[in-house]
Amino acid sequence: MSAEVPEAASAEEQKEMEDKVTSLEKAEEAKLKARYPHLGQKPGGSDFLRKRLQKGQKYFDSGNYNMAKAKMKNKQLPAAAPDKTEVTGDHIPTPQDLPQRKPSLVVSKLAG
Amino acid sequence: MAGAGGGGCPAGGNDFQWCFSQVKGAIDEDVAEADIISTVEFNYSGDLLATGDKGGRVVIFQREQENKGRTHSRGEYNVYSTFQSHEPEFDYLKSLEIEEKINKIRWLPQQNAAHFLLSTNDKTIKLWKISERDKRAEGYNLKDEDGRLRDPFRITALRVPILKPMDLMVEASPRRIFANAHTYHINSISVNSDHETYLSADDLRINLWHLEITDRSFNIVDIKPANMEELTEVITAAEFHPHQCNVLVYSSSKGTIRLCDMRSSALCDRHAKFFEEPEDPSSRSFFSEIISSISDVKFSHSGRYMMTRDYLSVKVWDLNMEGRPVETHQVHEYLRSKLCSLYENDCIFDKFECCWNGSDSAIMTGSYNNFFRMFDRNTRRDVTLEASRENSKPRACLKPRKVCTGGKRKKDEISVDSLDFNKKILHTAWHPMESIIAVAATNNLYIFQDKIN
């Protein structure tokens, strides 16, 4: 079994370790900024937090859907291609486009 | 690993040896999303072990009574009850999909023959009653044995129905549904020591409920800013103190913990204590805040300490000292040099949980590659173990694992680049009194016990 942190690191050793830690992180940050130069430059609140609060957002607007249905009358509403998971652009989502979330009818395999 | 389990350090300093006991779940490589375990929790006696999954199902295991003849083998956990707790919903008004994934299960202390637990998804908390039925009434007057109603005019004699034994049936029924109190996603529930109330916390608010009342809850913490553009932190976890019914803590995405006292005011927006470890501003990087976000907070059984889990470490705090933690344990420091890729594959946002053993002498938390870590607070020793099918022979001892960071890899070590980041152990649980642990590895539940006894 290993001890991760030495029992009594001297103050110097501590500072050295902290510096190493900092430089590792900063090196990783530099890597990230190199790949995504626009990261972190958007103003106003944290993107992570907002993204987190909006988890689960799908875009079905019943108003749009019904208006489109009325306009089309007898014609079929254009359906999204079966492999599309996101519905964007001019296409009006239909209830069929939203991935159907059915409750699990199968008993959990833990109980098997 | 010494010191785990009831009673403090054994005088002889015996190291505990964790051994495989059981594994539950399918073996096949293809894991259905619904089967991913999302929460694991022992009840107060440790006789029941509940799991929740992404498919909204709860499976409860019960420990078998120990066989008097085989003193060296402990009771095994077998399926006791399983039920569908939550179902997927769609909120058409807000265009929001509500997942059925069980975020948390918390048991209520047992008060009668039935067992009660709270289970929650993102929006709704449910109180479930799990009860046994081992008797059935026979000899009804108005209906036949198969349930068909008898013609009342043809009944010529009356009889008293009698109770006859039947095969044990375990029934789960939803007794209360606590809905519509959370705009954001529920991350925590915690039963108060008064056994009458509980809290539920989402990203921005914490509500207090009474177990008997479903149409009302009190908001006790609200950190939503007037202008959402000013949002800087969210609530990540919350828990009631194990003994002081007026005290609760909640952690934030900025790595801070606030302790609130419900006696001071109805709305606990102002904390009684604020726990934060000072940080050197010059060492700040893009990742600093993300990795400092606390994913779990747990009080010790004693109520004197609390433990927080952030991305790379576990910290133990003394409730009497707000300035800094009393202990910091590195879980997987070798990941610091991988933060860029962990950000890109979203792993940096993984929420690991942590737990105490019954005597508060040891703590456990998960990592990647199906590794989990244990820290003995007395001996200061730690160990990395792995939950895998390869180590699944009955009573096989788990061998400590080591991750190597440098160039020279020793024989049994695994290099950081070989770690499987899809095999995450986010949820673990420790039996409240004995040296038994439950570890959830994606869709499999492992149960390990110590060799001694």
UniProtKB/TrEMBL annotation, chain A:
Recite the UniProt keywords alphabetically: Cell cycle, Cell division, Cytoplasm, Mitosis, Phosphoprotein, Protein phosphatase inhibitor
> What are the GO cellular component annotations?
cytoplasm
Q: What is any one GO biological process for this UniProt entry? A: cell division
Q: Any idea where this protein resides? A: Cytoplasm
Look up keyword Amino-acid biosynthesis and say if it applies: no
A Pfam cross-reference name: Endosulfine
Keyword DNA repair listed? The answer is: no
The record's listing under InterPro entries reads:
Endosulphine
Compositionally biased region (Basic and acidic residues): 12-32
Q: Where is the composition biased (Low complexity)?
A: 1-11
- Using the UniProt record, give the first listed, main subcellular location: cytoplasm
A Gene Ontology molecular function term of the record: protein phosphatase inhibitor activity
| Region of interest (Disordered), residue spans | 1-48, 74-112
> For this UniProt entry, which segments traverse the membrane?
none
Q: What does this protein do?
A: Protein phosphatase inhibitor that specifically inhibits protein phosphatase 2A (PP2A) during mitosis.
Subunit info here reads: Interacts (when phosphorylated at Ser-62) with PPP2R2D. Interacts with SNCA. Interacts with PPP2R2A; the interaction is direct and this interaction inhibits PP2A activity.
The similarity comment for this entry is:
Belongs to the endosulfine family.
Q: What is this protein called?
A: cAMP-regulated phosphoprotein 19
Q: Which organism is it from?
A: Cricetulus griseus (Chinese hamster)
UniProtKB/TrEMBL annotation, chain B:
Q: Sorted alphabetically, which InterPro entries does this protein's record hold?
A: PP2A_PR55, PP2A_PR55_CS, WD40/YVTN_repeat-like_dom_sf, WD40_repeat_dom_sf, WD40_rpt
A cellular component term, taken from the record's GO annotations: protein phosphatase type 2A complex
Domain of life the protein comes from: Eukaryota
Does the keyword field hold Metal-binding?
A: no
The protein's GO terms of the molecular function aspect are:
protein phosphatase regulator activity
UniProt keyword Repeat, yes or no: yes
Q: Report keywords, A-Z.
A: Repeat, WD repeat
PROSITE patterns the UniProt entry points to: PR55_1 (PS01024), PR55_2 (PS01025)
List, alphabetically, the PANTHER family matched.
PROTEIN PHOSPHATASE PP2A REGULATORY SUBUNIT B
Q: What is this protein called?
A: Serine/threonine-protein phosphatase 2A 55 kDa regulatory subunit B
In the UniProt record, the gene name given for this protein reads LOC103160255
